Every structure is written in structure tokens, then in C-alpha cells.
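Recall from the previous lesson that a structure prediction takes nothing but the amino acid sequence as input. Here we apply that procedure to Hydroxyacylglutathione hydrolase from Colwellia asteriadis. The sequence below is the only information supplied.
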Amino acid sequence: MAMTNTSTALTVTAIKAFNDNYIWAITSPRNNSLTLVDPGDANVCITFIEKYNLNLTHILITHHHHDHTGGIEALVKYTQNSTVNVYGPNNSKIIGLTHKVNQGDIVTLPELQCQFSIKELPGHTLDHIAYIHDDMVFCGDTLFSGGCGRLFEGTPAQMHHSLAKLTALPEHTLVYCAHEYTQANLEFAATVEPNNIMLQQYREKVLALRQQSQATIPTTIGIEKAINPFLRSNSNEVIASAKHYNPQCMSDEISVFAAIRAWKDNF
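The prediction returns the following C-alpha cells.
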């Protein structure tokens, strides 16, 4: 059901949901408080809560898609606790939010003795946000390992700018995205940038992990800057590949990004 990574004083555990979603459970050794990120499925969360005797106090939502929000109502009802705080972007499509947040806002989780800052990341959806604390970022469907989210609502320029906000974070920052898409993403990445040695090595590592049904997440900002074609629009090989796919593609980063995003959509 889950795997665990410990960062500073917090423990982050992945609760697997649906085919390839990760719902992130944030806990602390100090108490039994639980914060959930993007709980699309209430049932797997309730199983996790009961297994570890946890007290759900906060829910953090990155965007309005149902596989990220579908469990809110049932979880709040299950806890019978009116103090469950549900944070999310300022979007009326998300039912059950108690706190709507914007760029630069701070979310304080007293039970976990930590704070998360908010970055707005339009692209995959227009309402998408990320939660950042110390050396971790919960970025939903904006940045994946080896890839990025489809542009369902935003423009290539918006997504390129949003990804730049993430790559500005320290390279050791742990990236907690919401899907296990890494192996498929790297197949595409290797087509775009076949001579990237670090990508080749990372792809071998990911293949070994997936053969053992192990998660490839979290990744890091540093790894992604080295292997992810959507963060490498200034790479000569990525530029050449984008122009091969779309001969009308210009050499600027947004045009290159747009070309490889369109290519990935049809890969």
C-alpha cells in the first residue's frame, strides 16, 4: 500500500490509489497527526488511518481534478471532526475547501510544527498550486519525473514559467508528484535526448525499481534538471529534436517546450 521517505522531522508516505496515483501522507514522530495531499480516494486513506491509528487534521489540494479531490467529503465525514482544515486553490469547482490559498500564502500545520509556502503553477490546470516546506515540494500534476502534466487548461508559456518556479528551488529538493509515470516518461525523454548519459543511467535505475514494483518518487529537482526534457528546452539536442518533430519550431525555450509537449501528447 505505501512506502515511506523521511525528510527532516516529517515522514512522507505514499498511499497508492487508482492505477498510478500517489496520495501523500505527512506525519511526525511527535504525535499521531496526519496531513493528506490530494486524497482522490477516501477508502485507501481510511485504511491507512486505521492501520496506524492516526488523526486526520489537514488536507492539502493542488488542483481541482477528481482523482485529487474525490475523497475530501468522505474523509471529513469519516473523521466526524469539524476541525479538519482543507486547503486548496481559489476555485469554486473544489467542494469542501475551508481555506483558499494563493501565491505567497503560508499554510501552518501546528500539529506537525511546520509551514508550507504556496506557489501558483498554472499549466496543467489554471488553478494548480504547489506546497513547499524546507527540502520538499508537493507539486501534483505539474512536474513528474521525466515529464510534466498535460496542458488541459493552460498555455505552453504558462507551464514553462511554472516549471521554472520549481527548477529555481534547491537541487536537493524532494519532488513529490502525484503519479507513477516515470518509466513511460523516460521512454519519451530518451527519444528526445538519446545522447544524455545521465538520462540513460537514470532510466536503468528506474527500470530496476519498477521491475520490483518499487516507487520512483520522490525524485529531486537536481535529477529532473539533468534528465527531464521539459526542463531542458535550452539543450542543443532537445532543440534539434523539437525542430525535427516540428520543422516550424523556433529556437526559443517556450517554442521548444511547446513542440515537445505536443510530441509527447501524440507519442
